[in-house]
Specification:
TIM Barrel
Length: 264
């Protein structure tokens, strides 16, 4: 059992963290974790690398989800992150997510090449058009597909022989879409990554993998940093591949709350 979580720091408000939604709409336990910094590595790229280096010896892989601040040059900051990961010698166990729409296709391609040279995996997030333009030249890149998107199942069918990170949404409709996409990916010849923390969806994912005779090295769970950590450790102990998604950067807390609210 994990110990009870403390409440939000005294004097801190949702506005202090730039939260775009009322925290009353979110699960109290999740809000407490965000406000106390237990779900976010920190504001800097060095924080992301520090947390990744702590997780890897436990048998985890890492998805680096850095959110630059509005005044920062995203390409420069993400390039710095790639350099730090390379210098730390942990690139083989990590992926960096590139927000293609924010970067632009040209900058995303450059960063993807820089990451590849460092031995670091790349995940591409954003609208289908720009992401597809970058992914076409990067057969090893992971394409992030949120289950709540209207075109999610079509994208999964188109990339069932490649690499997809399917991410869960919120609500019954998103759950049904998630399962439909999951069935497509697990039956395909690619290497799916399945991002969910809900124990029901985690269990369904394992069952679908077994049904399709998937070996543990042919797919992976992607689970949130600081959430259901005991479950993550149990899965690793049972032989499953688990990648922990580690948010960092000035915009990380607000982005995490949007995701928890089902708005990202």
């Amino acid at each position: 059992m994990e110990p009870p979580l403390p409440g939000p720091p005294t004097g801190h408000t949702p506005a202090h963290y730039g939260f775009p939604v009322p925290v009353s709409l979110l699960p109290a336990r999740a809000v407490s974790r965000v406000l106390t910094g237990r779900c976010v590595a920190g504001p800097g790229t060095e924080d992301a690398v520090r947390v990744a280096a702590e997780l890897i010896p436990g048998g985890f892989r890492v998805a680096l989800e850095h959110q630059p601040g509005p005044a920062e040059d995203a390409a420069v900051v993400l390039g710095e992150l790639i350099g730090r990961v390379r210098a730390a010698g942990i690139a083989a166990a990590c992926e960096v997510t590139l927000p293609v729409a924010a970067l632009g296709v040209h900058a995303a391609r450059q960063l993807a090449g820089q990451a590849s040279d460092a031995g670091l995996g790349v995940a591409l997030a954003g609208p289908a058009g720009p992401v597809g333009s970058v992914a076409d030249g990067l057969p090893e890149a992971v394409v992030v597909v949120p289950a709540g998107r209207a075109d999610a199942e079509a994208l999964c069918r188109a990339r069932a022989g490649a690499r997809v990170r399917l991410t869960a949404g919120r609500g019954a409709a998103a759950d049904l879409a998630f399962v439909r996409c999951l069935n497509v990916l697990m039956a395909g010849s690619g290497r799916p990554a399945v991002a969910a923390d809900d124990p029901r969806l985690v269990a369904i994912t394992g069952e679908r993998a077994a049904w399709n005779d998937r070996s543990p090295d042919s797919w992976e769970y992607v689970m949130s940093y600081g959430i259901r950590t005991e479950q993550q450790r149990r899965l690793v102990a049972a032989g499953s591949a688990v990648r922990v998604s580690v948010p960092s950067g000035p915009g990380a807390a607000a982005a995490l709350v949007r995701r928890l609210a089902g708005r990202a």
